[in-house]
């Protein structure tokens, strides 16, 4: 069973809550564990906030499109924006200073997801992240 959610948002950090709500709903429908959904929320939040802060330099009301394409065994998340051009593949994925306040977004995305890539398509940046689950990863709850 495939489940797709598409959202047209603006570059407002407060909209991260809407992303979380939609990911929670998708995770519940797909039968994913709380831990799996939490990791997806964290990676998606980091990617979204990077678009707002770095792509749009904090500008509000700029367009951001988000699509979740989920199946029982995983998800692909696509985030599109018209901010400054950005190439994920050219970025460093390790923490330079583990005590710094920022600089963890890309590191977290690559730590939490199975993969990610970005490309510029016309005037749009497109970030795709994916994660596969297997049934043995599902939480069995607390004893």
Can you walk me through this structure?
By secondary structure, the protein is an alpha+beta fold. It has a single domain, classed as Histidine kinase-like ATPase, C-terminal domain (Heat Shock Protein 90). The chain is globular. The protein starts with a strand and ends in an 11-residue tail after the last strand. The C terminus is likely disordered. Pfam families: HATPase_c_2 (PF13581). One of its GO terms (molecular function) is protein serine/threonine kinase activity.
In short, what is this structure?
The protein is an alpha+beta fold and 143 residues long. It has three helices and five strands. It has helices at 16-30, 34-55, 105-112, and strands at 2-10, 63-71, 74-81, 115-121, 124-132.
Give the key terms.
143 residues; alpha+beta; Heat Shock Protein 90; five-stranded antiparallel β-sheet; 29% strand; disordered C terminus; kinase
Q: Major beta sheet, specifics?
A: 5 strands, antiparallel
Strand content: 25-35%
Question: CATH top level?
Answer: Alpha Beta
Measure the end-to-end span: 31 Å
Mean pLDDT across every amino acid position: 88
Determine the fraction of residues in helical runs and give it as a percent range.
25-40%
Low-confidence stretches: 136-143
Give the C-alpha Rg.
Answer: 15 Å
What's the total number of strands? 5
Overall geometry = globular
Order of helices and strands: EHHEEHEE
- Domain count, please report it: 1
Strand order, largest beta sheet: 1-2-3-5-4
SS class: alpha+beta
CATH homologous superfamily classification? Histidine kinase-like ATPase, C-terminal domain
How many H/I helical runs?
3
Supply the CATH architecture: 2-Layer Sandwich
